[in-house]
Amino acid sequence: MRWRRTALALFIGAAASGLGILAGSNIWVARASAGRMYAVADVPAKPVALVLGAGLTPAGEPTPYLAFRLDLAKQLYDARKVEVLLVSGDNRTHAYDEPTAMMDYLVAQGVPATRIVRDFAGRDTYDSCARATRIFGVTEAIVVTQEYHLPRAVATCRAVGVDAVGVGDTRGQQYGATWSQGRLRERAAVVKASWDISIRRDPVLGAQESGVRDALSTLR
Questions:
Q1: What is the pLDDT of residues 112-165, one digit of tens each?
Q2: 148 in helix, strand or coil?
Q3: Beta-carbon contacts of residue 77 (< 8 Å; ≥ 6 apart)
Q4: Contacts of 94 (CB under 8 A, 6+ apart)
Q5: 51, 102, 48: which is closest to 72 by C-alpha?
Q6: Distance separating alpha carbons of residues 168 and 195, to the nearest angstrom
Q7: At 52, which helix (H) or strand (E)?
Q8: Per residue in 25-70, pLDDT tens?
Q9: Burial of 104 (0-12, 13-18, 19+ CB in 10 A)
């Protein structure tokens, strides 16, 4: 019947379009992040490490994935690859304060609190990257996250004006199923990232903050 042929043609067209968008988004991420992902020992020094949030446990402590990111940030600080750590996470309610938990973890590991700046509205990767430059004035940074997430994070930060390189955690591979699920989700997450960038979506905004600039100025 004609209507069935029409429906099938529309379905095939929609599927092809969707696959094209998915492929295009992944190609963009691969190209934008190529040659910009390093080990701690090899990464070029930058003034700031942008540490992306990864959730809290019911007790309000960093999840293992977030702890791995924070451990990498500590390594970067100890190796003098960065001077300030910008910890960006979710704080939509008083009961859920990801940036403060990140700061507390780093302080417990020996990082001076004066070298840590909190971004309380880093609700996703795009928001964290956009706010890093628009709110905190960051123009270059080392992005810290899991390895499979790193290409999108670096590409997104570059697209919003941050000269970004990245260091990615691999210890999370010990959580095999979670790691595999994360890698799979990442294939689709790049589509949202490319959409956010194409429309220049505004993150949660507010007054510009001088925390990063103030922390850096004490080292000059």
A1: 999 999 999 999 999 999 999 999 999 999 999 999 999 999 999 999 999 999
A2: coil
A3: 49, 85, 111, 115
A4: none
A5: 51
A6: 24
A7: strand 48-52
A8: 778 888 988 999 999 999 999 999 999 999 999 999 999 999 999 9
A9: middle
Confidence check: pLDDT of 22 > 50: yes
CA distance 37 to 42: 9
Q: How far apart are CA 127 and CA 205, in angstroms?
A: 9
**Do 48 and 81 contact (CB within 8 A), yes or no?**
no
Q: Tokens 């890698």 identify what position?
A: 183
Residue pair 140/46 in contact (Cβ under 8 Å)? The answer is yes
| CB atoms inside a 10 Å sphere around CB 96 | 13
Q: What is the dihedral of CA 80, 156, 173, 178, to 10 degrees?
A: 140
Q: What Cα–Cα distance (Å) separates residue 207 from each residue in 85, 120, 131, 137, 210? A: 20, 13, 11, 12, 10
